[in-house]
Amino acid sequence: MRLTRRQLPGALAAAAWSASPQLSGTRAVAAYDEVARRFTVGNSRFQKRLRFTPDGRLELEFLGLTGGRNWARPASRWSTGFHVRTAGGPGAAEPVFLFGLADPKRMRLARHAVRGDPAGSMELELVFEEVDRGLELRLRLRGFADADVIEQWLEVHNSGREKLAGLERFDPLLVPLAVAPAETCRITYVQGERARSGRGAENIQPYGPYHVGRCELFAGQAFTLSTRQDRLSRRLPTSTAEYLNWFALEVPPGGDGLCGGLQWSGHWLIHFARRRDEVILQAGVDDFRRDLAPGETVVSPRAFYGCYRGDTDAGVRLLHRYLRAHVMPADPDGEFPWTHYNTWYNWNILLREEALREEARLAAGLGLECFYLDAGWYEGSPAERASFGLGLGTWRENREKFPSGIAAFADFIHSLGMKFGVWVEPERVDLRFVDQAGSPIRGAWLALADPARPPAPGGTHPLCFGNPEVVAWAKQTLSRLIAEYKVDWLKWDHNVYTVCTRADHGHQAGDGNFAHIQGVYEVMGHLRRQFPRLALENCSGGGHRTDFGILRFASTAWNSDATSPGYRVRYQVTGASYAFPAQYLNAWFIDNDEEPATDATPAARLDEYFRSRMYGALGISGRLASWPENLRAAARRAVELYKKIRPVLRRGDVYHLLPQTELFVPPMVAPAEWDAIESFAPELGIGFVLAFRAASPTESVTLPIRGLEPRVRYRVRWHDAGRAEIRTGAEWARRGVPVRLEDPFTSEVLWIEAS
Question: 488: closest CA among 526, 521, 537, 529?
């Protein structure tokens, strides 16, 4: 669009670029009003407005839905926009803090720019200058025509002649929120993969992975979601080992909420601090320190946030629509997520081509759409049971296990009408292949927390993706692998991680985590561009890096290695579905002692096994050749059923009809409550409900079906009970839908369709 040159008023008179699209319909907006001295970004339904005060400060004037609650706290001492912390300079003991335009004597707004298309998205760029040190801060805000969400990120540029020492924080999000002293302020969040099995827990506690938590924030208190860990746990230093980087902040009982998150896969934090009449929200990268040379720029991850009315699910649906439209990559085809078979839990690394060909025939007979090899297919992986780390980094086929070659095996899988995939762990290598003849992997590429102590030989070790040479090697190697082996599905795992402090990798000693994640993104982005129809699965040891940054590249994510029994899987999917759309959540039915399957197991129990994995990407990892025929029949029923609900999974809104079940450890016994989840796609007029009795002593429950148009008539059909009723949406909402299951550990599927 054409940009017009304008001048900012008063003391802020500096060249700026501006445009003023009209606030109408569903058009995105980013504009500056010279008369009111006000910036606006958002759309006609949801806006953020910033204004200049007479003394030259920039404050938040409005944040919220049109006609709804104004979340803005204008007169905050911390201003708004961003938070930057640097070392204080030579001889200074205290760091320097910058909070937006809180101090016009130190910071000034130099210029602004507007770009984009009102029919899609509009971006507002605000450029601030700290003249004394030559620091330039570029705050970018992006609004969308079709989503009541704003993205916000920060660029820190050293425009001076001297090195800027010790940049430690460059938070792209600093928002003062107005909360009256008498109002209750509640934060909803989701735990990460903490103590994922729960078996080794010493104290009684809720089961960790994807536990939905809520806390009330009182005046004088602070609450932080982050990757920081207590020293006793020593869990993986990954993005979702502790929490998911998502939140919802609500002021009940009015039903006003603000939800958001951070698109980052490294160390991060989201912090809330409540004063008497405001809550300060800030978010950004953690565990970072870099000296910026003259002319150097560092760019933050994108934060995002939006406002909603209603319960937490209203915010979740807002978030999911935004993610599907503006963050998640395009699906490989119209049938994704594919029903799939994986070799890990049934074969481990003991892969044999002849046996797997038979398994593939059986998988195709079940109606599965993808067959992929997990760890152990590559050169250097032994034929006997051993660590799957042996051979990492070669990424060449193991001819002992696959005499015909992986490409020929892929051809066979494709001949059965299925997609083909393989597992990789690009960020770790077998040290036997480092600095060896014929191997491109160099010892100088290893990530070292203490450069003076190189790793002992004989094991595996992480690579530093902050090193441009490693990034180039990974791009070339993985591109060759995908093309040569005809790969449709690539599972990217990540099990061992060291934060690199070497200063000769293209990063500095204090920003190894930040540089590594940027390198991972660069490789994944390269694969996305080169192979646009590739399904990229994010794993990371089962959920340790399942975040909104990886979401820009990965089609689906392995939810957790704790994948049995069904009630544990449902618990995890329920929690994860607050942050992520259903199609992103990958879970398998596996052969396990907790879900016995014999030729005498009732069909309803077998159906419950598979349905417990259906709210997401449905997979199977079991020795099909050893399955009794009734289990195979149940799998065929499940795959057929899943393909019917898949269009709703891809486009539907989630409704958590019942609270997340109470699952405590130790010991982890089956919950005594029902659980149920609904997905409804308004534009299709169809939806479904998955309902499970588990160990509840109650045979029936009435479910509050939601999301229906009050005056439209809907047919609800009980899949197993074989009956149907037609009522208006208002009637279904008022009366609910009764579900009766005579036996524990059984399930029912409800179909909803506008009639």
Answer: 537
Residue type for position 637: R
Question: Based on C-alpha coordinates, what's the Rg of the chain?
Answer: 27
CA 615/CA 536 separation, integer angstroms: 19
Task: State phi, psi for 471 to the nearest 5 degrees.
Answer: -60, -45
Among residues 597, 745, 571, 573, the alpha carbon closest in space to that of 668 is found at 571
Binned at pLDDT 50, 70 and 90, residue 16 comes out as: very low
The tokens describing 496, both together, are: 């061992």
Q: Angle at which helices 629-651 and 603-611 pack, to 10 degrees? A: 40
CB 337: neighbour CB atoms within 10 A?
26
CATH 3.20.20.70 location in the chain: 333-537+546-554
Q: How far is CA 474 from the centre of its chain?
A: 23
Determine the straight-line distance between the first and last CA of the chain, rounded to whole angstroms. 45
Cα of 555 vs its chain's centroid, Å: 11
Given a contact cutoff of 8 angstroms between Cβ atoms, the answer to whether 122 and 116 are in contact is: yes
CATH class of the region 664-754 = mainly beta
Question: Residue 454: which pLDDT band, with cuts at 50, 70 and 90?
Answer: confident
Q: Which run of H or E residues covers position 479?
A: helix 468-484
Class of domain 333-537+546-554: alpha beta
Distance between CA atoms of residues 304 and 281, nearest Å: 12
Please give the Cα distance from 589 to 748 (Å, whole number). 18
Cβ neighbours of 239 (radius 10 Å): 27
CATH architecture, domain defined by 4-326: Distorted Sandwich (2.70)
- C-beta atoms surrounding 681 within 10 Å: 18
Q: 627-647 pLDDT, tens per residue?
A: 999 999 999 999 999 999 999
- Could you give the C-alpha distances from 290 to 95, 96, 509, in angstroms and in order? 14, 14, 8
Dist. CA 3–CA 17, nearest whole Å: 6
Pairing of strands 46-52, 58-65: antiparallel
Q: In this structure, are residues 556 and 505 in contact, taking their beta carbons and an 8 Å threshold?
A: no
Residue 89 pLDDT grade (very low, low, confident, very high; cuts 50, 70, 90): low
Pairing state between β 675-681 and 686-692: antiparallel
3 state DSSP class of 201: coil
Quick one: tokens of 258?
A: 């603000």
| Torsion angle, alpha carbons of 195, 199, 205, 207, to 10 | 60
Q: Provide CATH 2.60.40.1180 ranges for the chain.
A: 664-754
Helix (H, G, I), strand (E, B) or coil at 206: strand
Running DSSP on this structure, what letter comes out for residue 463?
B
